[in-house]
Amino acid sequence: MENKDQISFGLRKITTEQFAVIERAFDEKNDNIELVTNLRFGLNIEKRIITPLLSINFSQNKNPFLLLEIGCHFEIIKEHWDNLYHKDNNEIKLPKGIALHLVMLSIGTLRGVLHAKTENTFFNRFLVPTLNVNDLVKEDIIINTNDLIIKE
After folding, report:
1. Using alpha carbons only, how large is the chain's radius of gyration in Å?
2. Cβ-based neighbours of 146, under 8 Å, separated by 6 or more
3. In tens digits, what is the pLDDT along the chain, a chain of 152 residues?
């Protein structure tokens, strides 16, 4: 018997939506560094793509000095997409379990992109700590198709 919550997908593309190092905003003498994370979801209906967009912001005294946002574009197989996409109310309902999995994969990707973008610089010392994905995804994700974030 097939698990109704199982969703088959493949990673099709990784995008760097935003990257910036603002050296003048960083003070080496100040050890008070704050990390803010943000998560949102986008989609492409025609290509059956769901994209967790994950961003981080390192700052001191509310002044950002290192910013990164990435998107991992996951294609859902048609059979499973048809179970997620509800045309009658213009929404995609992504079960919490698969959303957690996609976000975990995106966090690992974010770490790699951060390393690659800052390699051989002073800012390579800033790492994304272990994140509790249960704090980022607390329930099923509902995406209204009228509010598309990603269009390709």
Report:
1. 17
2. 90
3. 345 568 999 999 999 999 999 999 999 999 999 999 999 999 999 999 999 999 999 999 999 999 999 999 999 999 999 999 998 888 999 999 999 999 999 999 999 999 999 999 999 999 999 999 999 999 999 988 876 544 44
Sequence-separated (6 or more) residues with CB below 8 Å from residue 114: 56, 68, 126, 127, 128
Question: Which residue is listed with tokens 């109704």?
Answer: 4
Q: Give the burial class of 15: count Cβ atoms within 10 A of its Cβ; 0-12 exposed, 13-18 middle, 19 or more buried.
A: middle
How buried is residue 102: exposed, middle or buried, by Cβ count under 10 Å (0-12/13-18/19+)? buried
CA 11 to chain centre: 13
Distance between CA atoms of residues 65 and 49, nearest Å: 32
Q: Which two tokens stand for residue 71?
A: 């998107």
